[in-house]
Amino acid sequence: MTNRLAEAKSLYLRKHAENPIDWWPWCDEALATARAQNKPIFLSIGYSSCHWCTVMEGEAFSDIAIADYMNANYLPIKVDREERPDLDSIYMQALQMMSGQGGWPLNIFLSPEDLVPFYAGTYFPVDPRYGRPGFLQLLQALRRYYDTEKQDLQQRKALIIESLLTSAVLQEGTTNELEDHELLRQGWEISTGVITPSQSGNSFPMIPYTQLALRGSRFNFESRSDGKQVCTQRGLDLALGGIYDHVGGGFHRYTVDPTWTVPHFEKMLYDNGQIVEYLASLWSTGVQELTFERAVAGTLLWLKREMTAPEGYFYAAQDADSFTVPTAVEPEEGAFYVWSYSELQQLLTPEELKELEQFTVTPNGNFEGRNVLQRRYSGQLSATLETVLSKLFTARYGVSSESLETFPPARNNQEAKTANWPGRIPSVTDTKMIVAWNSLMISGLARAAGVFQQPLYLELAARAANFILKNQFVDGRFHRLNYQGEPSVLAQSEDYAFFIKALLDLQASNPEQEQWLEKAIAIQDEFNEFLWSVELGGYYNTSSDSSQDLIVRERSYADNATPSANGVAIANLVRLALLTDNLDYLDLAELGLKAFRSVMHRAPQACPSLFTALDWYRNSTLIRSTTEQINALIPKYLPAAVFAVTSDLPEGSVGLVCQGLKCLAPAESVEHLLQQVQQSQNRA
Predict the structure, then answer these.
(1) Which of 62, 233, 557, 585 is 20 to 30 A from residue 565's alpha carbon, by CA?
(2) What stretches of 480-596 show up as alpha helix (H) in DSSP?
(3) What DSSP string runs through 380-414?
(4) pLDDT of 258-291, one tens digit each?
């Protein structure tokens, strides 16, 4: 059975025609009826392509209990803001005055005798969540207030009408929002301090901290340090330093000094995935240092050449040590990577050797009498230096980089010592597949593909993801490891969290390929079923059926060389909520943040990924537009945004931006769209 809106011309109004709510259009008869029956008016304003308007239509406005109470106690009116922008403008100012923010759906309560509002909001869930009351409880409370608090009601309306008659005043947010913003600022400032250059100790990439510092730099927090400059310096240290293999590509684990010169020479997949993602993100902010692009490209060549299995997944790591000769008893640290000065003299012309002094090359060396290459200057390398590095590559690998597509791994010391290597004996490669680490690399590839517009990066990422999807499920359960085609060990929280993120990152780089989102949803369901803590919130490290031998089930919240599982998982939940309209995900995200809130207050230096999740929760943005417009947005730095391709846009618009649980007016130009997106990414 339909209501009055079935006859409306507005598509937006007709979408509500089958609601059990007895909707009226805005008309004299409706207003007169409200006055005659002494019913407060519930006025709901939206538009057809408004995302959260549609969500509320399918939830609260379709709920029978809500409809019964609404019909008995209110006069409900629906307005299409595109038909009546005048009404919309007036009541939007009232909403902004009451709540400090605006957006659609605009739901506002009016006194029937004068149409002055006394309460307003945007999206209201059926049940209490996200710091918002359940809609039925709200309706009941407001009706009691309307009936019993007449003096307070009149005073409240007087203040509102006075403000409306002067100007709309945008108030500050609620106490909780201000608290969250201050908490986010604190987390950002501490992470920025963590990655600020030090004069002592080892130098680790610490990418969870760098990512939070970069995200926070868009807020223009007041601070003693320049966050963007600190982030840029970390990128330069990584891309110029000895931690990067300037000859063969890829990043070592860390350096043993504060100058980023001499590395601990192992190469870990998880570091490289995170660093690639970070450098691509840094580039997308406008810090387009050519050294970043070169380091990313070199790392991807190393990954494809040395770390990619024929089946498409990525190996785990390469050792720090290698043998200098087949008869050696023990391998030597860094032997595959470093250069004696005499060796350089033999390989290079005097002019080339002189040019190589743009790196840290001296007769005495910087590591046990030999040289680790570290660039002294940023910018583009000269043609001569590129030739020099090519010669060194050939000396190391025994063949030119142009002709070496695949460099087979030495799987153990015996293979390393007995294989007929054309150049140096390589370090041993750990060829097992770890879901969590592969996932970090997939995310890095996906982001680099979008930023640098390199299809090969996306191809490598997709192959690895498809391998995991096809091979890591046994009897319907997700598994963490793969040894030469054999899956092993039930997945842990980081495997679930990082792989779901990887799938969402793949979808973000090509929003038309919705299969990645579908797979992410399915894996999230399993994650929730077996690892979510109903009692405490957040995710346990291990599943409920594989923790019998543990004396305690921990929940990862602290970041180490990799992000915390719960930090990544909570951010994933927000992204899934935006992309699917399933607000159960947002419920879990809220519970997760509550679960770790005391940790964020007490030890913010321990958990940057939880602050990243808080940023997603506070500033999440859904951008709906055409493929062409979204492709233009993908390379930009929009750290709390997700994309959805649609061709069903309002006439004359180029896109739609939704801020969390509310939608903005359709963007009428690319400039307008960008303005909305940038504002939405910084709603503090």
Answers:
(1) 233
(2) 493-509, 515-531, 565-580, 584-595
(3) PPPHHHHHHHHHHHHHHHSS-TTT-S----B-SHH
(4) 999 999 999 999 999 999 999 999 999 999 999 9
